[in-house]
Amino acid sequence: MRRIPTVSRKSWEHSLVNGALIVVCILAMLPIATTVLISFKRQEDITRKPPVIFPCDTSTQSFDASACRWAVEGYQRVLAPKPSETSPLGFALTGNMFRIYVPNTLLYATTSSLLVVLLAGMSGYAFSRYRFRGRGALMTGILAITGVPLLTNLLALYQMGVTLRKAHLPFYDDRIFIVIVYIGFFLPLSVWIAKGFFDAIPRELEEAALIDGCSPIGALMRIIMPLAMPGMAAVFLLTFVNVWNEFIAGYLLIARNDHKPVMFGLYEFLGQNIINLQVIAAACILIALPIVILFLFTRRTFFKAMVEGAVKG
Amino acid sequence: MQRSLPHRRGRRNFLPFWLILPTLVVLFAIQVYPALYTVWLSVQQREPSGWIFVGLKNFARLRNLSQFGESIGHTIIFLVGFTSLTMIAGFFVALLLNRNVRLSGFYITLLFIPWTIADLLAGMVFRLLVVPDYGLLSGILQNPAIFPPNGLSVLTAVPPRPWLGSFPFPPAPALVYLVLAATWRALPFVTLLLLAAMQTVPQEIIESSRIDGANGRQVIRHILVPLMLPTMVVALFSLTLSGMNGVGMIFSLTGGGPGSSTELLSYMLYVIGWNQLNFGRAAALALMIAVINWLLISGTLRVTRLEEKSR
Predict the structure, then answer these.
(1) Which CATH number is associated with domain B65-277?
(2) pLDDT in tens, A137-153
(3) Which residues in chain B are contacts of A120 at CB distance < 8 A?
(4) Buried b (16+ CB within 10 A) or exposed e, A49-66
(5) CA distances for B171 relative to A198, A246, B4, angstroms
(6) In which band, very low, low, confident or very high, does the pLDDT at A301 lie, cut at 50, 70 and 90?
(7) C-alpha distance from A90 to closest chain B C-alpha (Å)
(8) Domain A95-312 belongs to what topology?
(9) Residues of A in contact with B252 (CB under 8 A)
């Protein structure tokens, strides 16, 4: 080994590392790839015994690329497009998933992320810039509930939801409650992330603005907010993805089916399509795709917020 | 030293309080109050006339359920399998990525995708592979040689007879499969965390130990692992926390079955609370899980604090 020149040893090592990483990546992608594969199969290829991996066999050959029977039947059954005269596209998606559950989740994820950004921005700024009595205790308190999982509070939240529902408050329904629940659970981490981002903005900028006659709120809006935008974007994204992916709270705390979120829709699909695997697979792809695309475009922001969050909570 | 913003002395500045107040109100309503409410629920029982105080009866009943003991066993097996597998695999993938090959950024992006997928969805994806008879892997796994006597699917094969008393070991194939699915989803998170810690280990230390004649394994054992220990503990605790409380994957992958062989404590909470509608007893269970969560969270805080101090 020693006699091999270092350069070739280095490159040999590199290709070994590369090879190992490629294997790891293939293993990581395999479940997703098979789901994509299943989603494009036809019903008769799904229910064949024994199962075939590619629906490309003919009576004479086991694999013939020209004989592949790909289909979009699964997607059609999830989306259920029907021609419609009122819709601007000429057709409307009549499947429950995209008619009810996706809009619901979009509503919950957007509102709770925006409110989390607002609240986390406000308190993160206060914790970063002001020294006041009780600051340390409050920060420790928030740190202590960062990372507390939803599960153990669900029973109490469920009872609270039932009580609130019975009170017949004006304008109130489960949608308001679930948004507040999501805010409450994703806020502590966001406060920490926001504080970290504010800490990184030099105070001198703000002090200069104050000396020049800017009000504290004006300095916050004009100087700090533009600089804190990347941090706020990270908080927004993280909360959005968390709410989109959340299942158990949306499933249990919302009474009416037409208020339930997208993960409930998927769970319902699972029960309805026991052997129509292509329908389940297509639904999975359609629901995962927006988040995966969002991640691919914003991965830097994402990683930063993740590592920050993991170390804190 | 950090200076605070100029504010007039003598008159208190109330701005920070107003800024923090909304956060505190929401956190109290959604985190603190429900936690106290759960404590109250755990000593109550629902009767037609309303809630009545039953003291610690809920806890005693829970302990007497054979299902409860089994569920603890399943949870322990799941957590041990899931955390050790994820930590070891994550460490090795991080080691590979730390070599800084040309395409690292690409690999990290690709490897990270499973983490963005919801746990319920990940469970469904893994379920598709082994659905009895029709899953792509069912052909291989429904083999009498693997799951005797009749070659059932992973999802339906009954657990083998336990070796020691009532502790459910060896686990049902479905539980092993659940461990694999959970590992698949959690791996990117741990890899990224460990990679970040690995990159803070100064290269000079590793090089000088190499010059002193340490081999790869010695470098890992005596330099990397001790220096990364705080992060590893944080990763381990946060994996345990998510494994303890993550219930979505069980819903979509196994539904607790076959029998109750994949019923972890988290899923049992759902079964007692919403299937059996016994909120008092479920609250007792929730409280036990919450205590474990608290231990894990305070352990994490202690480790991160120590690390901050030592810097």
Answers:
(1) 1.10.3720.10
(2) 999 899 888 878 889 99
(3) 23
(4) eebbeebbbeeeeeeeee
(5) 49, 28, 58
(6) confident
(7) 31
(8) MetI-like fold (1.10.3720)
(9) 266-267, 270
